[in-house]
Q: What sequence folds into this?
C-alpha cells in the first residue's frame, strides 16, 4: 500500500500523527494509498518553515517571482498527461476533464506572470509642497488554503499562484480524497525555481484545518468546499483576526425560455448536468423551462440524450462521458436524495438507480437521473446533490423562473437560454447570483476575471483569481514623504489638509 506524504521544506515528509485516511480508486472501489492526517504540531512545523523562508521571497523582485510562474507553466504543459492520469485515478473524472482541471489552473498561473504590473502601487507627485504620496502592495506573510476534492489541480492553483506571486509563503491543505496532484504541483513549483518552504503541502482533515485557523502566524485563509464548512471556517478564522475568503456549495438554475433553441439547450444541460458526474460547483442541477410546452419539448429532447450517456472508468479514454463519484459515501448520499425525490412525489423520468458496470461492480458509479415536476419544497431542490441528477422545475412565466433562482439560498452560478436579448439583459441585471451565463451553461469566468458566487455560496468580500486575488493576498501601505522644500519654514504642528 502506497503511503503518501506531506511536502515540507522541499522534501516529502512522512506523517507522524499516526492517523491516515484511505485514498480510493473510485472506478474500482479499491484503496490505492493512505494519506497522512497532520496534527497541530506538524502544521506548526510547516508554519515555522514558511515564516522563515517568506521574507527573502518577498524581497525577491516581482519580475523574478513571475519567472518562476513562467517556468511552472511550461512544466505543467510538459507533465500534463501525467498530472491528468494521477488526477483521474484518485478523483474518477475522465482524462480530458482532468486535463481541463489542470489547464484552468494553469491559466491562473499565466495571469500571475503579470505580477510586476499587478503589484504596482499608486503615486501622487506633489500632494503638497515637497510632499509625495505613494502606496505599496505588500505580501501578508504566511497564507494557507483549504481545497475540495472536485478540482484538485485547478483550485489549489487558484490560491497558491497569486499568493506566491505576491510574495507570500503558502501552506496548502488539499482534500484528503485526492492529495497526489497537489503534491506533484508543489514539486513542480520547486523545479520551476521556487525556494524551499514557500509552497508546502500539509495533508489532513479537520484537525489540520483547525490548526491553520488557530495559528497566530497565518495571516490569511482561503477555503473552497461545502457551505457548512465554509461558514465554520469563515467564523473561526475571522474571529482569530485572519483575512478569510470561503467559497461554498451551489444549486445552479438554468432557465429555458420558450424561444430558446431547444437542441442547444438540451445539449448544454447534458454537459452541465452530467459532466464530471455532476461533481462541479458550477454544474447545472436545476432546469427551469418556462411554459408547459417548453417543458414538454425539453424533456423530450433530454431523455434520449441522457440514455446515450456513456458512464465508465477514465481508463476508457475519450470514450466516456463521465466517471464514478468520489467515494462510496458520496454515492450513498446521492442515492438517499434520489429516494427522497421519489418519496416526495417528483417524477423520475430517467431512473439511474439500477446502474451497474460490468467488471466495475465495486466502483462508485451512479447512473444518470432526470426528475421532472420537481417543486421547491422537495429535498432534491433544496439541497446540493453533487451527482448526476438533474431536476426540472416547471415555471409558468419568466418572473416565476427568475424568482426561483433568486429565492434559492445558493447563488453561485445561473444561466438563461433564449434568443431574446431583452430577456437575457433583464435576467443578468436582476438575478442575485454571482456568475451568469447567457446561452452558456457553465459560466466559469476566465483567469483575468474573478470567480465567486453570492448568498450562501460565499463568505467574504473578494472573489478568487483575477485582480481580486492580488487584493486578497496583499496589504496596502501608504507612504507620505516630505522633502526639504516643504520644511524650510520650520516645524509644522497642526493636522491640516494638504495645500
Ligand atoms: P468539503 O467541505 O467536504 O471539504 C472541503 C475541505 O474542507 C477539504 O479540504 C476537507 O478536508 C475540509 N473539511 C471537511 N470537513 C471539515 C470539517 N468538519 N472541519 C474543517 N475542515 C473540513 O467539500 P468537498 O466534498 O471536498 O467538495 C465539494 C463541495 O465544494 C461542494 O459543496 C461544492 O459545491 C463545493 N465547491 C465550491 C466551489 C466554489 O468555488 N464555490 C468550487 C468547488 C467546489
A:
Amino acid at each position: 500500500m502506497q503511503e503518501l506524504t506531506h511536502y515540507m521544506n522541499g522534501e516529502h515528509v512522512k506523517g507522524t500523527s499516526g492517523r491516515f485516511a484511505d485514498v480510493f480508486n473510485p472506478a474500482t472501489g479499491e484503496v490505492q494509498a493512505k494519506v497522512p492526517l497532520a496534527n497541530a504540531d506538524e502544521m506548526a512545523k510547516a508554519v515555522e518553515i514558511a515564516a522563515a523562508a517568506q521574507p527573502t521571497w518577498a524581497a525577491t523582485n516581482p519580475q523574478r517571482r513571475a519567472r518562476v510562474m513562467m517556468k511552472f507553466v511550461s512544466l505543467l504543459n510538459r507533465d500534463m498527461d501525467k498530472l491528468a492520469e494521477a488526477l483521474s485515478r484518485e478523483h474518477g473524472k475522465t482524462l480530458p476533464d482532468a486535463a481541463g482541471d489542470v489547464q484552468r489552473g494553469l491559466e491562473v498561473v499565466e495571469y500571475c506572470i503579470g505580477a510586476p504590473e499587478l503589484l504596482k502601487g499608486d503615486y501622487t507627485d506633489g500632494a503638497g509642497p515637497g510632499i509625495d504620496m505613494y502606496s505599496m502592495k505588500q505580501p501578508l506573510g504566511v497564507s494557507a488554503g483549504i481545497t475540495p476534492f472536485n478540482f484538485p489541480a485547478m483550485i489549489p492553483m487558484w490560491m497558491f499562484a497569486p499568493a506566491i506571486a505576491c510574495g507570500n509563503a503558502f501552506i496548502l491543505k488539499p482534500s484528503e480524497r485526492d492529495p497526489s496532484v497537489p503534491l506533484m504541483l508543489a514539486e513542480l513549483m520547486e523545479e520551476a525555481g521556487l525556494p524551499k518552504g514557500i509552497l508546502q503541502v500539509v495533508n489532513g482533515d479537520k484537525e489540520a484545518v483547525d490548526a491553520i485557523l488557530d495559528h497566530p502566524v497565518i495571516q490569511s485563509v482561503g477555503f473552497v468546499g461545502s457551505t457548512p464548512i465554509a461558514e465554520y471556517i469563515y467564523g473561526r478564522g475571522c474571529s482569530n483576526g485572519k483575512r478569510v475568503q470561503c467559497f461554498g456549495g451551489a444549486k445552479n438554475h438554468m432557465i429555458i425560455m420558450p424561444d430558446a433553441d431547444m437542441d442547444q439547450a438540451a445539449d448544454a444541460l447534458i454537459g452541465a448536468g452530467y459532466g464530471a458526474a455532476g461533481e462541479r460547483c458550477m454544474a447545472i442541477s436545476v432546469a427551469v423551462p418556462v411554459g408547459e410546452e417548453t417543458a414538454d419539448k425539453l424533456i423530450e429532447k433530454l431523455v434520449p440524450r441522457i440514455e446515450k450517456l456513456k458512464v465508465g472508468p477514465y481508463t476508457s479514454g475519450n470514450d466516456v462521458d463521465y466517471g464514478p463519484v468520489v467515494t462510496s459515501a458520496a454515492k450513498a448520499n446521492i442515492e438517499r436524495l434520489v429516494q427522497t425525490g421519489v418519496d416526495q412525489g417528483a417524477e423520475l423520468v430517467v431512473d439511474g438507480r439500477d446502474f451497474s458496470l460490468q467488471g466495475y461492480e465495486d466502483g462508485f458509479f451512479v447512473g444518470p437521473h432526470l426528475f421532472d415536476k420537481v417543486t421547491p419544497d422537495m429535498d432534491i431542490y433544496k439541497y446540493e446533490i453533487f451527482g448526476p441528477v438533474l431536476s426540472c422545475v416547471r415555471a409558468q412565466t419568466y418572473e416565476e423562473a427568475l424568482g426561483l433562482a433568486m429565492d434559492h439560498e445558493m447563488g453561485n452560478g445561473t444561466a438563461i437560454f433564449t434568443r431574446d436579448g431583452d430577456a437575457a439583459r433583464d435576467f443578468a441585471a436582476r438575478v442575485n447570483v454571482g456568475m451568469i451565463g447567457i446561452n452558456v451553461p457553465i459560466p466559469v469566468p476566465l483567469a483575468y476575471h474573478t470567480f465567486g458566487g453570492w448568498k450562501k455560496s460565499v463568505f467574504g468580500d473578494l472573489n478568487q483569481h483575477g485582480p481580486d486575488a492580488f487584493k486578497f493576498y496583499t496589504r496596502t501601505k501608504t507612504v507620505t514623504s516630505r522633502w526639504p522644500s516643504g520644511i524650510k519654514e520650520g516645524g509644522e504642528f497642526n493636522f491640516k489638509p494638504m495645500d
Notes: The longest strand covers residues 131-139. The chain has two domains: 2-248+457-480, 252-438.
